[in-house]
Amino acid sequence: MSLDVQIEYESDIDELIERYSSLSFLKSIQLRADASISWDRESGTTYDLQVIFIGKTGYGKSTTLNSIIGNRVFETNDVSSCTKKLHSAEYKLHSKKPYYFSLCDLPGVGESTEADERYLEWYRDILLKSNCVVYVLRADQRDFTIDEKIFSSLFQNQAEKKKVIIALNYADKVEPINRKYPFQPSEAQLINLRNRVNQVSQVFDIQRGNILFYSAGEQYNMKILINAIRGIIQQQYKLLR
């Protein structure tokens, strides 16, 4: 099955660094033309530091990416069972070489058992080729049965899970809901959020350091998410070297 990539946004890495100074390390990374990070496009082959966002439709992947970019470029679309596209925002890392930092939205999982079975192997190939994977859940979600099944199929050992961040979106929807603006969780919410992190760690068999909670809509803990991505990319880059 071929990979169909739709580029939604293109810019220079300086634009993203202006928003998140912690990503300034990307300017000093010396990529190699390595097949493990190569992607074929209409314009030719590129070499990407790839961050993939995955999760069910309605969990806020597109909102999260738009929040990171600072621009509404990712739209939530219904995807038919016969068409799957990888939507991306591309930031050029080098003026003369085809090196990019790429933020990608993988089509929603959990739409149906038939669709998941058909595409899980394809998803797994893409995710294994990526430097960092952000698996988006809802912080106010209680039943993880479908996500647990999908997650265990996509990431089959601890080595693969080391590059995964489980990001619990909608932290502002966790009880007891408060109306503070800008949003800051109450002590009671923080207790529930931390308990949810512990639950997710046990259910998905992933260390607590790779789990965080945030709210894309409320711009809460977005820098924490970016810093987590930074840490995993830096570690992955060391392994690539």
TrEMBL record:
InterPro entries: GTP-bd, P-loop_NTPase, Small_GTP-bd
Key words, A-Z: GTP-binding, Nucleotide-binding
Entry protein name: GTP-binding protein
G domain mapped to chain residues: 50-169
Pfam short name (any one): MMR_HSR1
